[in-house]
Design brief:
510 residues; alpha+beta; Cytochrome p450; 10 strands
């Protein structure tokens, strides 16, 4: 048995080496680190991938080949190449690479995020652009965002004014995560799972458990994903995925049913995405799987990313008191001390908007855009990208390119006062939401919430480092992963700066 297995292994290795040699001779592939047989560059990649790829780009150039096992991944790291990938060659590079877990979670791409580019994607994208993320609906849902942001302010105020907490620091992330969680569940499902005392209901507990279980299942397959012929040794836990899918569907269908009953009683639909999708289901011929997939796309894309973006921004503001003070002076001039900020004030607060942009430039929440997959052989930057290869845009590296940005690693919001740069996919120097056919349809919603959270945090409080910690000692390292959490959650002392009556939550029931 052993000699037979060894023989098979030798044949496989020989075939793989031959295939990689054939690819190199047939195509002019981008340069890159030398791959090992079978594993490619997997063992050379450092845990924080976007930093590792940015380092490698210093050696191999702004377009390079990185082998994940036997799968070619091309990484681009500057705005000129990002434009080629996301605009000029966008159509041939608009498919999605789905891992086995992504295929299971998305029912083989019946959602939006994991769908290949084709009639289904175009239809679902149209639903998002023309129906779900319109300026009118975003405005109609504003009271929910403002409710949740004022709930955060009230919570911070209560905690920082307790006598026993005098001078003590708060873990900023805890408050941001609560806003992001409550906001996205209300927008998607029309439900606030947490009551005013902070107690979560039964559905909320189940929702959190489903999210946690999905993360656990998704992380369980690493190596075999990249070496297809090894997958028989790492079979997919079919039963676990089936149970997870059934549990997710059960909760979502129960919420959908509640909305259907409420709509029949009242005779009118609400603005939440679940209501919108249910009323549009026949018009766009959307299956239940697609409706459920879209709702969960919104949750996975919108829950962590806003909290992450604001936490990084706050870390930068605590490190840079000059910027914090300048933002507060602008708000004091425009808003004063007798009312709270509303989203309608943003257009009168240009420096605040520059802070949000600068934070997203330096710390994009998804620093390596989800990979695009080539549906045909295509040329980028003078190199071949064979059909079936994956292409990653290193948004983090693009936003810190010294050839494009002066003092690229400095947090200096003024740069956006000097030149107004779009961040919704029209300017390839700044791509926190992607660009082209697969640009994030909820970009404006994300910008509004991030800006609103920052505005309230800065208008209501002065923020300083924990006692005994110097600003320059704040740990700005990232945790490995698809989204960039801070490795060490930022802690800070909050001191109220407005009259006490302005710290009350403005609750809205909608």
């Amino acid at each position: 048995m052993a000699p037979l297995f060894l023989g098979f292994a030798i044949i496989f290795i020989s075939l793989l080496v031959t295939y990689q040699l054939y690819q190199k001779l047939r195509f002019k592939l981008p340069p890159g680190p030398r791959p090992w047989p079978i594993v490619g560059n997997l063992y050379d990649i450092k845990p924080v991938r976007f930093r590792c790829f940015a380092e490698w780009a210093q050696t191999y150039g702004p377009i390079m080949s990185v082998w994940f096992g036997s799968i070619l991944n091309v990484v681009v790291s500057n705005s000129e190449l990002a434009k080629q990938v996301l605009k000029e060659k966008d159509q041939q590079l608009a498919d999605r690479h789905r891992s086995r877990s992504a295929a299971k979670f998305s029912r083989d791409g019946t959602d939006l995020i994991w769908a290949d580019y084709g009639p289904h994607y175009v239809k679902v994208r149209k639903v998002c652009t023309l129906e779900l993320f319109t300026p009118k609906r975003i405005e109609a849902l504003r009271p929910i965002r403002e409710d949740e942001v004022t709930a955060m302010v009230e919570s911070i105020f209560k905690d920082c004014t307790k006598p026993e907490n005098n001078g003590k620091s708060l873990v900023v992330k805890n408050y941001l995560s609560a806003v992001a969680f409550n906001n996205i569940t209300r927008l998607a499902f029309g439900k606030r799972f947490v009551n005013s005392e902070g107690v979560m209901d039964k559905q909320g507990v189940e929702f959190k458990a489903i999210v946690a279980n999905g993360l656990k299942l998704g992380a369980s397959l690493a190596m075999a994903e990249h070496i297809p012929w090894l997958r028989w040794m790492f079979p997919l836990e079919e039963e676990a995925f089936a149970k997870h899918g059934a549990r997710r569907d059960l909760l979502t269908r129960a919420i959908m049913e509640e909305h259907t009953v409420a709509r029949q009683k009242s005779g009118g639909a609400k603005q939440h995405f679940v209501d919108a999708l249910l009323t549009l289901q026949d018009k766009y011929d959307l299956s239940d799987d697609t409706v459920i997939g879209l709702l969960w796309d919104m949750i996975t894309a919108g829950m962590d990313t806003t909290a992450i973006s604001v936490e990084w921004a706050m870390a930068e503001l605590i490190k840079n008191p000059r910027v914090q003070q300048k933002a507060q002076e602008e708000m004091d001039r425009v808003i004063g001390f007798e009312r709270v900020i509303a989203e309608t004030d943003f257009s009168s607060l240009p420096y605040l908007q520059c802070i949000a942009k600068e934070a997203l430039r330096l710390h994009p929440p998804t620093p390596l855009m989800l990979p695009h997959k080539a549906s045909a052989n295509v040329k980028v930057g003078g190199y071949d990208i064979p059909k079936g290869s994956n292409v990653h845009v290193n948004v983090w590296a693009v936003g810190r390119d010294p050839a494009v940005w002066k003092e690229a690693s400095e947090f200096r919001p003024e740069r956006f006062m000097e030149e107004d740069i779009d961040m919704k996919g029209h300017d390839f120097r700044l791509l926190p939401f992607g660009a082209g056919r697969r640009v994030c349809p909820g970009a404006q919603l994300g910008i509004n919430l991030v800006t609103s959270m920052l505005a309230h945090l800065l208008h209501h409080f002065v923020w300083s480092p924990s006692e005994g910690v110097k600003a320059e000692e704040i740990d700005m390292a990232e945790n490995p992963g698809l989204v960039t959490y801070m490795k060490t959650p930022v802690q800070a002392v909050a001191i109220p700066r407005l009259p006490p009556h302005l710290y009350k939550r403005v609750a809205v029931d909608m």
